[in-house]
Amino acid sequence: MEKNYITPAGLAALRAEAKQLLEVERPQVVERVAWAASNGDRSENGDYLYGKRRLREIDRRVRFLTKRMQCAVVVDPSVHAGSEQVFFGATVTYLEPSGQARTVTIKGVDETDSLRGEVSWVSPVGRALLRSRVGDAVRLHTPQGPVVLEVDEVSYPAC
Question: Mind listing the pLDDT tens digit for each residue in 105-143?
Fold first, then answer.
C-alpha cells in the first residue's frame, strides 16, 4: 500500500467528512428509504430509488476515506519552521521566467485546493520544488518544454 502523506489538518478533515457521512447523512437517507419502501411499489418510487443510490454513494465514499486514513502518514510541517529548505507542508514563493511571483503550499493528495494555491507533493510543481532551498533555480518540465523557477521564499506554519 502506498503512503498517503497528509498534514494533521488534512487528516482531521478526512475524519470529519467520514463522521458526517456515517453519523448524520447516512441515518437520514436510511430513514427516507424506509419511509419510501413503506409506501408500496418500489419500482416507480423516486424517493426509494434515489435513496438507495445515495446510500451506495455514501458507503463507497466512506470506504474510500477509510482506506486513505489507514495508509495516512501524518507529517507536521511546523517541525521545519525557520528552515530555508522546501519539505512537505512548505509554503513556497517562486519566480517564473517572466518575473511573476507565485506562491504555493505543498500538501497531501487528498487535501489540495488549487484555488487556494495548494499543490500536491506528487504534482510536477511540488516534485520540482521539494528539497530545494531559497535562491535555488529548479527545472520544471511542462508540455511547452522545461521552465526554470527560482525559489524566492520558504515558510512553514507555526507550531
Answer: 999 999 999 999 999 999 999 999 999 999 999 999 999
Same domain, 60 and 84: no
pLDDT digits (tens, 9 = 90+) for 11-49: 999 999 999 999 999 999 999 999 988 887 777 788 899
pTM of the model: 0.84
The count of domains in the chain is: 2
Q: Are the CB atoms for 4 and 74 separated by under 8 Å? A: no
- SS3 assignment for the chain: CCCEEECHHHHHHHHHHHHHHHHHHHHHHHHHHHHHHCCCCCCCCHHHHHHHHHHHHHHHHHHHHHHHHHCEEECCHHHHCCCCECCCCCEEEEECCCCCEEEEEEECHHHCCHHHCEEECCCHHHHHHCCCECCCEEEEEECCEEEEEEEEEEECCCC
Say if residue 81 is in the same domain as residue 143: yes
- How many Å apart are CA 89 and CA 156, to the nearest integer? 7
